[in-house]
Structures are given as C-alpha cells and as structure tokens.
Amino acid sequence: MRPSLLPALFLLLSCSGSSMFRSDDRVMLESLVELIEMDYEDHCEQRAAASWDELVGAPAALQRKLERDKVYGIFSKKQTHEIRSVLTTHMLSPNDDILRRKVKLLLEPGDTMLDTEQWIRLVTFGDTALHNLRYATDYDCGSNANCTLRELHKSLTMQHDDETLRRMKASWEQKLPSLDEYRQHILPLLRNASKEYNYTTVEEYWDSLAEYEGGLLKARELWDQVKPLYLKLQKYVSLRLRGEDAIGKPIPVHLLKSLTGDDWLNVIELLLPKHADIYQKLHANLQLKNLGGEKAYRRAAKLIEELNFGPLEPQLWTESNFNGQCPPILVDSCKPNNVKMYTCKDVSIANYMDAHEAVMKIKYKEVTALHSNNTYVLRDANRYSALYEAIPGFASLLSLTPHALNRAGLYPLERFNYRNNPNHHRLVLQLIIALRDLPKLNYYLAADEWRLQVLMGSITSSKVVSSWSEFRKNFSLVDSADVELLSDPYVTFNKPFLGKFMGLILKYQIYQTFAEELISDDADLAQHVSVDNSRLMEAMSRGYGVLWPAMLSDLLAKREYGLEFTALTDYFRLLDEYLDNQLDPSLDTNEMEYEEPPVETPVENEIPIEKDADNEVELDTHANILENVIDTGDDGPMKQGVETSTVGVLEIKNPVGANNEHGEIPAEASYSTYWWIGIAVALAVVVLLIAIIAKKRHSHRKQLERQRRDTSHA
Ligand SMILES: *[C@@H]1O[C@H](CO)[C@@H](O)[C@H](O)[C@H]1NC(C)=O
Ligand SMILES: *[C@@H]1O[C@H](CO)[C@@H](O)[C@H](O)[C@H]1NC(C)=O
Ligand SMILES: *[C@@H]1O[C@H](CO)[C@@H](O)[C@H](O)[C@H]1NC(C)=O
Ligand SMILES: *[C@@H]1O[C@H](CO)[C@@H](O)[C@H](O)[C@H]1NC(C)=O
Ligand SMILES: *[C@@H]1O[C@H](CO)[C@@H](O)[C@H](O)[C@H]1NC(C)=O
Asked: What is the mean pLDDT of the chain?
C-alpha cells in the first residue's frame, strides 16, 4: 500500500480548483487516478490471497476474507468521494476519452457505495453462505450419508432413483442461508445502492452496471423469441423423464439431477436420439483419457493456442488447484498475468466445456492486460459485460466442433463425416449444448426478474411472485424449492445476471459470423478463427475502455450491430426439428438415414498410424473406440443410454415406414443387415485382438512417457 502520496496530491488538487494551474489540472487528475488505481490493485491482491486461502481451506481463512472484503468496501467508497470532491468539469477535455472513462468507472463502483454497515452485511451474508456450502461434510450422497459438496455433485450425475435424488437435494437445501434474512435484509440493499447513484429503479441501476441502456427490456424481448425453443425442450424432457401425462407441467428439479435446475445435461442419457454414437464415444473417451482437472485445462489451453492466441502464462499450471470443487472459480489478483484456477478433477462433458470457457477467460484477461492503457479500472471494473461472457463461451462452443473433437482425440473426423451421418452427430452435439445453455438463459432472466419484482413490491398484489418456486413454475416450468437461489453467488451478492444472459445470446452471434465465412459446413472452424482472430483480439484488448455494445459491429464483422436472437435459434435448427418430430410423431419426419460406420475403419488405419509415432492423438482415439466397444457391457450410464433409446416415442418413429416412403426396398435392407452381422461377428474377433494389442501398446506408451517426464523433471 502506498497511501502516503495521496493526501498530498488530494490537497493540491482541492486548492487548484480556482487557481492558475488550471492547465495542469488534467495532469493532477491523471496522477490521482493512477494512485487510486494502484491502491485498488493492492486491495485486489490481498482479497485474492484471502479468497484463495478460503477456497483451499486454510485455517481461519473465512475471517480474513471477510475482513478484506469489509475493508475493501470502505476503501472504495472513500476513493469515490475523493474523486467527486476534486472533479470539476473543466478538468476533462472532450477528447480525453480514456481518462474520462476511468473517472466514470471510479465514480460508480457499484454496491460499495452502500453505507458501511450495509456493505458489511452484504459481504458477510454472501461469504458465509458460500463458505458453509463449500465446507459442509454431511451431504447425503445416497449411499454415503456424510459426503462433501464435490461428492454430492458427482453422485447426482450417477443416481437414478427419484426418492434418493430428492433426499440428496434436501440435504443440500438445509445448508443454504435463511430466505427470510435474504428477503428482509439483503435483497432490499439493492434499492439503497441504486439510490446512491440517483437511479429511480433497481432495473436502471442494473442496466447501468451491464452498460446497456434498457438492458432488461432487451433481455425480455430476446427471451420472447427464444422461449418457443426452450418450451419445446422442456416438453421433450418432461416426456422422456415422466411420460406423456407430464407434458406441459413443471419438471421437479431433482429429476433433472441438478441442484438449481440451471443445467440439464445430467439427464442427457434419457434424451438421446436413436443414433447417439458421438455422445457415447465422447463420454467414453473423456473417461478413458481421464480428461478432467488439469488435463482438461491443458487440452483447453491447446485449443486456445490453435486459435492463435498464444500460450497461457506458465504460472497458471504451477499455482492453480485442480483438485478442489467444481464449478471452476477463477481467482484474479489484478496484477497483470496473475490468475489462478480452483476447480475439480472430475471428468465430464460439462467440466470439459467449462474448462474451455475458463481458459479463454484467462486468455481474455491476459490480452486486456497486454495493453498499457488498460490500467486496473479498465481491466477489473465492477461491470457485467456480455463480451466478457460471450468470447469465453465461444471457445467452449468451438471445443465441440468436429475438427476440435478430432484433434482432441475424442471423436475421429472420418467417423463424423461418414456418409449421411454428420447431421445425426450435429443433432447430438446441439442437444448437449442446448441442455446447458437454454436452461441457463432462462434461469438468468428468471433470477433477475424475480428479484426485481420482489423489490417492486409485487408480492402483495400477486401471489405468484411471492416466492421463487411459484415464480419459477410459471416462468421456467421448473418445480424448485424457494431457497435454492441462495446457493448462487450472483444472488447472495446482489449481482445482476444480465451480462451473462446477453453473453449467452452474443456467443452464438460470434459463432455465426465465423461459421458463415466458412467455405463449407465441413471446414475447420477453429482453423478459420485462427487465421482471422483479430476481431476477437481487438475486442479483448480494449477491456472496459469502450462500452461493449459499441464494439459489437466490429466484432460481428459489421453484419449485425446489436444483439439478435436469430444466431441462437439458427444454431439449434436440427434440434428444433427433432423436438418437433418427437413431440408430434405424426409430422412427416423426412429424416436422413443413419448408416452404421464400418467397424473396420479403425482397423485399416491402425497400420499406418502404428508407424507414425507422432500421431498420438489419432492412435489414442482408435484404441479407445475399440476398448469402448468391448467395455460397454456393464457400464451403468452407458447401458442406460442404450436402453432408453429404444423405448417410448422413438419406437413410433422407427424408420421402416420412412424407408418405404423414400423408395427403399426392405428386402435389400435386410440382406445387407445379415451381411453386416456376418462381417461384424468376424470383425469383433479382430477388433478384440487389436484392442488388446492397442491397449497394451497404449499403456506401454504411457509408461514410456511417464519415464520421459520423470527424467526430464529430474
Ligand atoms: C455422519 O456424521 C455424523 C456427525 O459427524 C454422525 O453422527 C453420523 O453417524 C454419520 N453418519 C454416517 C452414516 O456415517
Ligand atoms: C436503506 O437505507 C435506509 C436509509 O439509510 C435505511 O433506513 C434502511 O434500513 C436501508 N435498507 C436496508 C435493507 O438496510
Ligand atoms: C444525486 O442527487 C443529489 C441531489 O440532487 C446530488 O447531490 C448528488 O450529487 C447526486 N449523486 C450522483 C451520484 O449523481
Ligand atoms: C493508448 O493511449 C495512447 C496515449 O494516450 C493513445 O494514443 C492510444 O490510442 C491508446 N490506445 C488505445 C487502444 O486506446
Ligand atoms: C406467467 O408468466 C407469463 C409470462 O411468462 C405472464 O404473462 C403470466 O401473467 C404469468 N402468470 C401468472 C399467473 O402470473
């Protein structure tokens, strides 16, 4: 800390207002801002250290974290008052954009302007709530009645019994803070914070923090357009989870194997279309390669490098903790290039995608920090930018593109492109992504709307909004508990989700502008982004120096100038059709045939690859697919996926009828079926042998690698 210079400068500035130094005022103001930013940086560093200690469970860390957060609020309020008191209009010339922007951000730091007692109440509530959730050790994991939050998350994905799921979730709800306290003493602080900035409503205040005028209005408008797709997905999930009678009714959150219902990916195995080869392989290969924790992050960092953004700062790998809890938390000490990850080692598609998003966020921070104009406040202002959400989200979309999956050794490109199958695979990928993003989009807006309505006092006039669960039933068609909202740091700290909501919309727009530039659907999107990443670089390098909506037209290559829902709905086109067909089987399906890829493809390739020692990724893939063929037998979730894909509506849609319509001769089909069965039996034997060899060679390789690593470390 270097507070000694500040008072002197401050004094000088206050005297200069009416004096002859007028032309030097600007220089003075600039120095004052610079000093204040340095102090902010010191605070940030100390808060980051305390947060980190609390995350990794250092003794008495919660106390220190609370202390840091309290002091921070007092400090921030004081700096704002100082700038306010010296600032006069003549200090800033009209073309002094950067300084003007910094001053504005420092003058409006958000909730820290609350009265000290109120600020302390806010951070105490939030910090304590999260700490209690994180460190409770008596969650009910079904088989184990005393487990940790990490184990709870993991067990949820594997539990199939409804009653047990309900019990597991109930054990978690007990750890949440008091809803009454939140409603009476925490949420209303938002009204007081908005008053500090003379906003008449909290909505205006949130719009200003998201830096989008009429932001919530825009969000509602966007949601109205996305809602039909969400409702179709919700109906389809209801149908597959609870049968036809449940269509149109709210889905109980615990049936979604989720705690808050903002992510439905855990039930995907009940929802897969008939030909879900890509899901099965992706799921299996992630497990076989153990692509969780640091490995997933290293793979994600590789994608970022492939996009031509360069490597990440090396200390990320030495200082992060990949053995903690999910979802990932990024701890930034606001010194350029000093960011750490705290996350878990569990392997899942969701964690794999989260890793890509997190790594891109770190890269974002690095790029912003590279530009010398971006001092503290232009990097770390208390603002909710959609860009800051969308660009990292775009990286996670890219991680599930065919070429990226191929490079990661998760699904071979030749298998993806086999005959008419690509659209079947695309549909499955869209389903994976939709199950993550559509419920989130809804949840974000629901949480913001509910808080605003409660604050506006609609409680008395309409019973529906009086509780979160009632509101959510109507708004989301999800049947949840009242308290579960209080597990979310954005809620306990009174932050708006608006930026995240808009980021989710924008990410598909970014995707679309790049995808439209591709020569064909089969081209490599990541490769294309890598040769043309300047749009992204430019936007990232400006940090908070420019309002994010003003950067949209350049970012979107001038095709669009604002937020549009169409990129998102276009992205999910195949899924949308599929959902229509599932919900109304009488519709003409027009479905393209799926052709089982020949099993020998990997066998043929095995030989040349064998010689190509560098091509490790390919080798892994094939070895894994073969292992997978053998392993599926008693694998719980996999087995379930196979079983469920043969029941219910899909049965009605059995493609025999469709084949006839398309003029195919059934006899021919059955002939070829027998032929394939014959071949398959013969191949199965070969495959088994090769798999054993491949696996042996694979583990031998791993051993060699380990030895190599060990010796290079020594
Ligand atoms: C869980 O922990 C509590 C307190 O530590 C103990 O009383 C209880 O017996 C434990 N339950 C199980 C099933 O281990
Ligand atoms: C908001 O501010 C007013 C006036 O300072 C105060 O009386 C009230 O208690 C504050 N609200 C909350 C929730 O603390
Ligand atoms: C809010 O309004 C009051 C009274 O008009 C004024 O004194 C104060 O400076 C305003 N605050 C801000 C942040 O504009
Ligand atoms: C950074 O500041 C310099 C000097 O103030 C200015 O010339 C330059 O354009 C700024 N760069 C950006 C990216 O705003
Ligand atoms: C349910 O939500 C819709 C908007 O999504 C709203 O128009 C309607 O009034 C709500 N119903 C009730 C009973 O509040």
From this structure: 83
